[in-house]
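Chapter summary example.
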Amino acid sequence: APPRATVAKLPARPQIDGDPREWKAVAELPLERRGSPERGSARLAYDDRNLYVLFDVRDASPWRNEGKDPTRLFKTGDAVDVQLCVDPSLSKEPARRDVAAGDVRVVIANVGGKPAAVLMRPVDPAAGEDKKVHYHSPVIDKTFDRVEVLASAELAVRAEGQRYVVEAAIPLEALGLKPAAGMVLRGDVGFISSDADGRINTARTYWANKATNLVNDLPHEAWLWPHAWGEWVFE
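The structure predicted for these 235 residues follows.
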């Protein structure tokens, strides 16, 4: 059975400052990889305007990403990742492997010294050709209808020692998400690890999807795999 998590309904909007103390009442989702010292957790919450997420990651070289191309931040160093389908009807298809309209990914990483959130939609009939991005390798090709920086996301990062915390408020409107109490969606959260210089990714660690050992094929790492996600129940 897929893992199940609760997306907490917040009575008040959290301050987006990278401080996890406001999140003590929200359950942690463990982010761990067998045999790896790198580990972390994620917490999910929402209100009538935003999906909120807090990542707390232990990493020997925290929050390093030297990538300049927003469409490839998941390949160029540390990042955190939110993946979900905003269409509740598709949650009734747990074995679904084909992407659909409603599947969305948000990758958050450092770009030029500041955090940036990148919205990725494999299927988006409303997207123009200028938003389309192709990912190619000798093994496979994948195309996203929309990949763009999500300027409306509010982000905060604190990195010190061997730890970093990422806090984000992602507008529901940008995701196409209309949460309701008791609604069940499929989704996943995780973090991507870099080499010591923050130039390339070396590992991927997720809450639900454990088939993440592959770190040398761009299209596969870009793509969404709904059958490997867990269930999110909105409080």
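To summarize the output: The chain has a mean pLDDT of 96.
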